[in-house]
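Quick one: structure tokens for this chain, please?
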Amino acid sequence: METARTRVFVPLSTLTANKKWLISPKSNLMIWVKLCLVAVLVSILTSCATIPTTQSSIKSIRVVMDNNYPPYAFMDENGDMQGILVDQWKAWETHTNVKVEVVGLHWDKALAGMKAGEFDVIDTIFLTEERAKIYDFTDPYTQINVNIYYPSNFLGLADAGNLKGFRVAVKAGDANADYLISQGVTNLVYYNSYEEIIQAASRKDEAIFVVDEPPAIYFLQKYNIQNDFHYSEPLYSGEFHRAVQKGNSELLALVNHGFSSISKGEYQTINDRWFGKQYPKNLDEIIYYLGIGIALTLLIISILVVFNRSLQVRVEKRTQELEAALSNLKISEAQFRDSIEFLPIPISISDAEGNILTVNHKFTENYGYTLEDMSTIPEWMLKAYPNPEHREKVVKQWTKDVATARQFEATTPLREYEITGKDGLLHTTEILMRPVKKLWVASFIEITEHKRTEKIIRESENRFRTLFEDSPLPLLEEDYSVAKKYIDQLKNSGIQDLVNFLDQNLEEAKKLAEMVRIVDVNTAAVKWYGVTNKQALQVRLSELIEPGEYRSFTDELMLLIKGAKHYEVAISRPSRNGAQIHLIINGTIAPGYEETWGRVLVSILDITESKQAEENLAEAYDTTLEGWANALELRDKETEGHSRRVTETTVIIARKMGMKESDLLDIRRGAILHDIGKMAIPDEILKKQGPLSIDEREIVNHHPQVAFDLLSKIPYLKKALEIPFCHHEKWDGTGYPRGLIGENIPITARIFAVIDVWDALSNDRPYRKAWDKDKVIEYLRNESGRHFDPVILKMFLELVEKGEI
């Protein structure tokens, strides 16, 4: 350790190394006494000459260090800090009379605390360029080797370059992590301490780790896995320093002064406590060893007498050692072969002379060749690349790569080759060669299927582009990925019901439309939009949406948010000449883009003509139906206007109850035709004044079935059958024709039942006069839960009270 001053020490080992000090016990004793006096005098003079006289105003300091770095600094079972540095700071406190509080933390927290100004001094720190900008450092006091640790059956991890592609465990905040990243090793896993790394290794959660040597030795032995791991030559050697905040020269001087005041003997005592020690050789020991020397001399003379016999024993022993070494070598070779034999990728190993030493099972499985088929690299080249011209190019490139790799002791570049297997089939393969001492390890990555898949994808893409471009429908390729990320942000912000949120916040929909980008369009789209080129449409989607169309865009988004991979929405908009046009917008997320929405294919189908024809046909249908209803009313003058009134009121109630607009057309038709079955009732019964007989009542009650039989044969009226067939059913099951109960009665029929009775009681009939409004309302309330659905009746009466009916 370097300190702020220089001390003079005379190691006893230096003295005992000189044989003239071992002449006789008496002379030896006198010389030793003199030398000890001289050593003490020199030490006293040196100490007196170098004691600093400066005084400091600092009375106490806080020191932070790594709490998991044995034997320098670590916690005991009670959570108290111990180790070499803790004892050194205690000695420092004694020499300076400055109180020291030593705090041990996880290293990343120690760095953060020091940076935040919570501590005065940080210990166990490496000097780096970044740290030098914020701290002033003492001289280094010990050197620390940093090694790669890996399972004993691994090969080829000699330096940082060999770690690329492997998962490597490191300690958070450690300089080792910065070093590995600077060397291009990025697949790092961070732990809070070295001990956590070794614990993970003992559980086999981690296989490779980069750790400082002292704590590595300590923890590997603590968890009894020291024989399971090998380690590399040092990646680099760091040095421990102590550091203070930048510019705090007074504290830096005090730290240096305090540690320079600690004697070498004190340092040695602390080191002996934690590293162990050998007892010093005193005079008795010297005499003892002198006696041993004399005994050895006599023993050598005796050995010379029996030289022949001892030589024979030694030869036999050496022979046994050589046999054991040979056995171990065979075991090591077998372990090495086993370690590569069942790797999932083809492997070959050759020596520097070009002899192929081994290939693994996967190599033979992929290419068919065994070691007997090609014992050298030239033989392999002849078989793998049978075309002479192609082989010449391969050999030229391979020779160049190997020469470069040898020069820089690096891995060859990953290159693609076409290898001919033993069965004559071609294999597209990426080959990488890595030097391991005097051997070359080659790994072969089969990419034949990958290349074939790439070709299929390219051909598929070409077919798609052709179909896309030649389609008669306007097609757009849209990128929703930015909008998708924004939607995910809205979800993470706590918005649960995004559908409702977008429905109530049209501005958010506009913002999302600005995030959608039109990537490509076909020729039909250019023509349909009336622009001159594709570039005019490769814009943000918001530039193509009319102000009144954001609702339909929101509908599209809602379907995508709900997980739909395909959506279809219908919109109506003015054309360029002002006429109303009707469109069907179809969107499909392209395969592989379901998570990002990065590619959505949109088609535009103009259905204006078919929509107009449909509306004309519907108008003709409705005119026909109204004609039927009018014909029925002409037959019974007393019910004239009844069908029109109940139809209008039924549509109002259905809309209030949230029924879709698309369903209202069928409801309207059903209401118009609700009494169509009465066409089968004779006039004498239909127009009879007074009560009906049982037989007459049975004929009247049959008219819903007549309506069903008549209308069910007309396809476009099948959805309108509910009201004509079921409007005389009652909530309690006493109605006709089927006696349905409660919600088994279609809701449209339940709505109509209320309105039909309301209108019938409110208007004159052949057998009675119209009731006044209050009397009708009282009657309807009395029938709640018997004739009528209570919920529907309540809504109806509320609308009556408001004057909306």
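Confidence is low (pLDDT under 50) at residues 1-54.
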